[in-house]
Amino acid sequence: MDVLKNQDPELYAYIQQETERENNNFELIASENFVSRAVISAMGTVLTNKYAEGYPGKRYYGGCEHVDKIEDLARERAKKLFDADWVNVQPHSGASANAAVYLAFMNPGDTLLGLDLSHGGHLTHGSPVNFSGIQYHPEFYGVEKDTGRIDLDKVRDKAKAVKPKMISIGASAYPRDFDYQAFRDIADEVGAFLWMDMAHTAGLIATDLLNDPLPYCDVVSTTTHKTLRGPRGGMILVGNDGENKLGVTARKSGRVKNTSEVLDSAVFPGSQGGPLMHVIAAKAVAFGEALQPEFKEYQQQIQKNAKHMADEFKNLGYNLVSDGTDNHLILVDLRNKNLTGKIAEESLDKAGITVNKNMVPFDTESPFVTSGIRLGSPALTTRGFKEQQFSDVVKLIDTVLQNPNNESTLETVKQEVQAICKEFPLYDFVEA
Ligand code: DSN
């Protein structure tokens, strides 16, 4: 305690400022959450010292007997949580997990069919500025202008036309659930692999509040820090392991490797070096928390709060992409309010409300301006906010959006935000 404060007061002060920001603002970024003190504690341990390239029982360094048990614990808990045959908990991030998925299933130049970034997809699903769109050939499906939803007949037509090696599902700004059986049927029709990136919705999937991709997909990737509420990191899972369809064989025996073996090699040595054992320990802690009954109650409240927020915005005349939500986020289209996402984000920030500007489907503004904002309920639900508080959140957002340039209104809202935050205390420490 206070070790950091005494040794490096400058750095300590910056961490303290960030702690205060998290304590005193409404955190509505859909991909963020607040981890437990136990998760933070596990990260601040001597485990950061240990090199453990390889996997439990098969490491390239000595002295791994204790970190082996930690990685095994994380793997076993994750397998139980998602009813998976196999998991790899080493990816440093969601993007690293996805890099390993590409390495395992695709050759450079192969075609990926994914959800368009400007329709809610993700950078690593084929964006031209990302390795996935540079190394591979990206093709996209989108959402419909009138419904904001994916039309699976159009996905099938596109898949037949472009014959992808792999189809990706998953999004960073899509408020609806996915029909995995339908995607599986399309993938089978065109002979493609099927990959779900459940980074945003992993917590809701683990607790059966959204459809489960694992029985249908060849591979599933995720981050561990969004709805799953663990440390910042990634993970890869296989629901039904078996001989890989790529025909990759073991070097010595010529035996066809399982999908899990191909993916393990794609993470290490394929795309990463030493795993972050302190983060893997924190993942184990978070998975342990997620296996408790209270975690399901938490996820149910996330979903209720997001739906409530959607209804409240609609009552105030806001347009929502797809007219609502099935999961933890909503996407507000601000065009009928004559506002851009940039102005909304900046004015809300001044009032202590943190959101991100976001493209809406068929946006006419650039990605730096945008016509929308994305709002998620996971972080404030962790704080204890229920429907009543989310009504207040929406009212305060509306006040700001009606007066984006009125400094005194923004200051008044900020005071109200801070008063509500005080009723729902978050972190009472800087150093765990
Ligand atoms: N940056 C994350 C998000 O906000 O959705 C996705 O990687």
Describe this structure in words.
This protein has about 425 residues and is α/β, with parallel strands linked by helices. It has 2 domains: about 250 residues, Type I PLP-dependent aspartate aminotransferase-like (Major domain) (Aspartate Aminotransferase, domain 2); about 130 residues, Aspartate Aminotransferase, domain 1 (Alpha-Beta Complex). It contains 16 helices and 15 strands. A 7-stranded mixed β-sheet has the order 4-10-9-8-7-5-6, with helices on both faces. It has a 4-stranded antiparallel β-sheet with strand order 11-12-15-14. The longest helix has 23 residues. It is globular. D-serine (DSN) binds next to loops.
Descriptors for this entry?
Aspartate Aminotransferase, domain 1; four-stranded antiparallel beta sheet; binds D-serine; Aspartate Aminotransferase, domain 2; alpha/beta; seven-stranded mixed beta sheet; globular
- Main sheet: which strands, in order across? 4-10-9-8-7-5-6
Rounded to an integer in angstroms, the radius of gyration calculated over CA atoms is 22 Å
Unreliable residue runs: none
> Which CATH C-level class of the largest domain is it?
Alpha Beta
Provide a count of the helices: 16
How many E strands? Answer: 15
Shape: globular
Tally of separate domains: 2
Helix content: 40-55%
CATH superfamily of the largest domain: Type I PLP-dependent aspartate aminotransferase-like (Major domain)
Mean pLDDT: 98
β-strand amount = 5-15%
Hetero groups: D-serine
What is the second-level CATH architecture of the largest domain? 3-Layer(aba) Sandwich
What fold name stands as the CATH topology of the largest domain?
A: Aspartate Aminotransferase, domain 2
